[in-house]
Amino acid sequence: NKVIKTEETTLGDALNTYCDQLKNNSIEGIVLTFDSHIYKWKGVEENYPDEFINNIEDMYKVVRFMKPGMEVYIDKMKIIAKAAREVREKNASSNHKKNSKHQDEKKSSREVHTDDR
After folding, report:
1. What secondary structure letter does DSSP report for 26?
2. pTM
3. What's the confidence (pLDDT) of residue 35?
4. DSSP secondary structure of 31-77
5. Which site from 1, 14, 28, 31 is most exposed, i.e. has the minimal number of CB atoms within 10 Å?
């Protein structure tokens, strides 16, 4: 059994404290609670769909307008989301290359089999 550490902190401190750890994937994520709301901030190995990244960009614009200076916290979220996108794209590219290689190997083996007849 693994004990999960809990602490009371501000959102800004949590973002500053855990951003690098999430980006380096040294932790899976953090759970933030505000009143009765629960939010999960996941690391780069998690799936950050483009829609989610766009929501962060939209939130940045709102926060910059309504709470100037606070957008630095949204920047932390953007760092993780963009790093997650890079990991996703790298994995997709790698999987595509593996699938292409596997298809090429299948073709080659069929060609060799045909030549043996």
Report:
1. S
2. 0.64
3. 80
4. EEEETTEEEEEE-TTS---HHHHHHHHHHHHHHHHHSTTTHHHHHHH
5. 1
